[in-house]
Amino acid sequence: MGLKKKNPVTAGQRFAIADDYSDITKHRPEKSLIKRLRKSSGRDWMGRVSMRHRGGGAKKMYRLIDFKRTKDMPAKVLGIEYDPNRNARIALIEYKDGQKGYILAPLNLNVGEMVDSGPEADIKPGNALPLGSIPVGTQIHNVELTPGAGGQLARSAGASIMLVGKESGYGIIRLPSGEQRMVHLTCRATVGQIGNLDARNVQLGKAGKMRHRGRRPHVRGVVMNPCDHPHGGGEGRAPIGRKQPVTPWGRPTLGKKTRKPRRRSDRFILMRRK
After folding, report:
1. Is the N or C terminus of the chain more exposed, i.e. has fewer CB atoms within 10 Å?
2. Is the dihedral of CA 125, 126, 127, 130 positive or negative?
3. Rounded to whole angstroms, how far apart are CA atoms 26 and 29?
4. Separation of CA 38 from chain center
5. Is the pTM of this model over 0.85?
6. Exposed, middle or buried by CB within 10 Å (0-12, 13-18, 19+), for 171?
7. CATH for 222-274?
8. Is the pLDDT of residue 258 over 90?
């Protein structure tokens, strides 16, 4: 992936840094691997707003990604595609029996290469193996938390996890946040780092780009009326008037720890994040 900066002939292009999509090799999705993505605009089944600041956006189809990688058969990479539902690229692969599928495209995975899955697969980008078959010190992504449930960790652009050890049937992984936790050695992970490293350097340049993504404006509470937000009211620019910020419904926020103190997964966490 590369970045490009347009000649600022309009105000919206002046600060925009866009993706040049130079790593895309296939521009049409596989019809058998897409489905319609219905929009809810942040409303629940009764039509009431259950998620604020959602609505609108460009139409898009959902790509069916294989996060489990349970088919232990070599496959050939047919193309690298853009996915409007994530900032990472996806790779279209075709197994030897003719079945096609989508996987998250790791860094340095090229068209025509072979990827494999299973305990006997080689340690190369794009191959999926159980943690028990991956050497310590390997960069991995798309890591399962429960065997057979599909990858849940490190699925965004540029993300990777380090396997730092193995002990008592569990692998010790270090997440990008610095947290270290134990995952069972039968859980699968994919070797390598997710590609599209420059995704974090893209600058939209104008508010309309965020509207295209289905995000509506986010209004600050301090500029609202007291009937609309606890921070509202006052003459002119006024402080929030409380010891700490709160949500529109009065719950503490902005620094308030929301993780439950006694979660079942706490016993698998060896070191908290930085």
Report:
1. C
2. positive
3. 8
4. 20
5. yes
6. buried
7. 4.10.950.10
8. no
Domain ranges of the chain: 3-200, 222-274
Binning pLDDT at 50, 70 and 90, where does residue 207 land?
Answer: very high
Indicate the CATH number for domain 3-200.
2.40.50.140
| C-beta of residue 156 within 8 angstroms of C-beta of residue 210 | no
Q: Decide: residue 178, CB within 10 A, 0-12 exposed, 13-18 middle, 19+ buried.
A: exposed
Triad 72, 87, 127: Cα angle to 5°: 20
